[in-house]
Specification:
The chain is of the alpha+beta class. Helices cover 24% and strands 34% of the residues. It folds into 3 domains: 165 residues, PmbA/TldD fold; 127 residues, no CATH class; 253 residues, no CATH class. It contains 11 helices and 26 strands.
């Protein structure tokens, strides 16, 4: 059974078909099948999943907690004073109630299991007034406010209000310190409040908050069954030395209450399975990894389809070992075709972090931002936007969905690049305009510091009237580029899910992405799996190098680490063909 057969008969597949698929010897798996799997992975993983297992939810009411916090915030705002010092004009309390469950397995047996319940609250106090407060340049790099770690687990109003008071008192003193530091180190004409830049803005529309949350119930039995089966299958693969399978479940209820009267609670849940396998072929030890990230355990792909990826990875390890030194490149500069997943990693690093408004508020990073301009940067057929309101795409529920951000603003779709030009940036309630600033609801944090503008659900796709090329057509264009540039071969990147970008004004504006699977392709169409390099480059030159794009999208859920901590995001992209991209020796990203 080929991948084409799988996709053509998706409604007729049963477990016996899939068992036959994963019972093969990895030496029989061709490079063409490996390529086809990763090009179509999004569609394959959505076939025959656990549709008969439905996630269970239970209602949890946070009205009492919200009300207790709001009462205390209003009292504190009126009474919190220091002689001769500015008063607080805004107070917020962001609580993260997290349920974490972690298990790992080897050779079909559970090895570790732990469960943790935590409640943490971040208190933010702003002093002075919106045009002259404690916020100043480089504040996005500071952990302002105060983290409260002892929040009551029961509806005890006195205990809840005491926790809020402790946090507000400390946050107020820190805000005063920041306020005077700002006054003592900047001249009046250099303050961010000049002409409205860097000022706090109010929401035009009050967001209606929620008091009842649908809390996901953890299905421990299903979680254990899945990772035991995966670990047993991995342990029996040809060439395997060691393997480990781990599952992390996180249910986070986020509650925001502020002095403007906003209060709401929302649940986010995430499940991530990580598989690590060490193979030995031809005296070469090769490590391969797989990740599966979904919103609930019940939404994970069919166990046989996850095993199929492990089988594919064992075949990849065999090919990489077989290529040996002859298949190892020191570097490469030339045309590169990136699968939709790999393209998503590139645009996340190249564009995503450079349209976050906090960069404008940092003296050390202000030069990194892609500002709205008339200059055309890239192919005008492609659009880049971010929308936290989209709950699912390509049959996958998205990690970056929310109904209010960490400043109480309703999220909006932000169209960031259109017709090849930057037309907008991701914003919070901190103004980055002289006048007319409005948050588009992208203030996010890990709950342990002030929120900054961050990505949520990012999309890099053709505009409605544009038509992309099939994967086969993209490969034909790539081969033409190889011939035109008089190169011996080109490169296809199939898997890349980790990256980093440099945003400092004091260094080269560059990015780097870790490649996990890549192919050499020759002008005659012959392909070889070779040991992967990392892709690297500078943002503007990379964007201008995109000469064609695919007709199918792929969606990936993942985590992104930046100024305001580690947050959950999703990226949807099409495949892209670049006429020039640099590949370098791998680093430890």
């Amino acid at each position: 059974m080929t991948i084409k057969d799988i996709l053509n008969h998706k409604n007729e597949l049963d477990d016996s078909d899939l068992i036959g698929l994963i019972s093969r010897n990895p030496s029989k798996i061709t490079i063409s099948e490996i390529e086809s799997f990763y090009v179509n992975k999004n569609a394959i993983m959505n076939l025959n999943n656990n549709k008969d297992v439905v996630p269970e939810y239970r209602d949890s009411n946070y009205k009492f907690f919200q009300g207790s916090v709001l009462k205390e915030i209003k009292r504190i705002k009126k009474s919190l004073r220091q002689p001769g010092q500015p008063k607080p004009y805004y107070i917020s309390f962001l609580m993260n109630e997290e349920h974490i469950y972690e298990i790992s397995a080897r050779v079909g047996s559970i090895c570790n299991e732990k469960e943790l319940f935590t409640k943490k609250g971040f208190v933010d106090v702003k002093v002075g007034n919106p045009t002259d407060d404690d916020f100043w340049q480089d504040d996005i790099h500071q952990k302002r406010g105060f983290l409260v770690e002892n929040i009551p687990t029961t509806n005890n109003e006195k205990a809840i209000r005491e926790a809020v008071w402790i946090g507000c008192e400390d946050a107020y003193m820190r805000a005063l310190s920041s306020y005077h530091e700002k006054k003592s180190t900047t001249f009046p004409d250099e303050l961010h409040s000049t002409n409205g830049f860097g000022t706090w803005t109010y929401n035009d529309k009050k967001t209606e908050g929620k008091t009842v949350v649908n809390k996901l119930v953890l299905n421990k039995k299903l979680a254990k069954d899945i990772i035991k089966s995966l670990s047993l299958y991995a342990s029996e693969l040809t060439g395997i030395m060691t393997s480990n399978v781990s599952l992390l479940f996180s249910s986070n209820i986020r509650t925001l209450v502020n002095s403007e009267g906003f209060r709401s609670s929302e649940e986010d849940s995430y499940v991530n399975i990580k598989v690590s396998m060490k193979f030995k072929f031809n005296n070469s030890e090769i490590i391969k990894r797989a990740n599966f990230s979904y919103k609930s355990i019940e939404e994970l792909p069919n166990i046989h389809l996850m095993c199929y990826e492990l089988l594919i990875l064992s075949a990849v390890a065999r090919y990489e070992a077989k290529s040996g030194r002859s298949g190892k490149l020191d570097s490469y500069v030339g045309p590169v075709l990136l699968s939709a997943d790999a393209a998503g990693t590139l645009v996340h690093e190249v564009i995503g972090h450079r349209v976050e408004s906090g960069r404008l508020l940092s003296s050390s990073e202000s030069g990194s931002i892609l500002k709205p301009a008339k200059t055309k940067l890239m192919n005008g057929d492609l659009v880049f936007f971010d929308d936290p309101n989209i709950s699912s795409f390509n049959g996958v529920r998205l990690y970056g969905t929310y109904s209010f951000d960490d400043e109480g603003s309703r999220p909006e779709r932000a169209i960031l690049i259109k017709d090849g030009r930057v037309c907008n940036i991701l914003t919070t309630r901190i103004s980055v305009k002289n006048r007319g600033h409005k948050s588009n609801g992208h203030a996010r944090s890990d709950g342990e510091g002030r929120p900054t503008a961050r990505m949520a659900n990012s999309f890099f796709i053709p505009k409605q009237e544009a038509t992309g090329n099939s994967w086969i057509k993209l490969k034909n264009i790539l081969k033409t580029e190889i011939v035109n540039n008089k190169l011996p071969f080109g490169i296809i990147i199939l898997v890349s899910d980790t990256g980093e970008t440099n945003l400092s004004n004091d260094d080269v504006q560059a990015f780097r992405g870790s490649v996990d699977l890549m192919l050499k392709i020759y002008p005659d169409g012959k392909q070889e799996i070779v040991q992967p390099l990392d892709f690297a480059g500078t943002p503007l030159s990379s964007l201008s190098s995109i000469i064609s794009y695919g007709d199918k999208t792929s969606t990936t859920n993942h985590y992104c680490g930046s100024d305001s901590g580690l947050i959950a995001v999703s990226t949807t992209s099409v495949a892209i063909l670049m006429n020039k991209l640099e590949l370098q020796q791998k680093s430890s990203i």
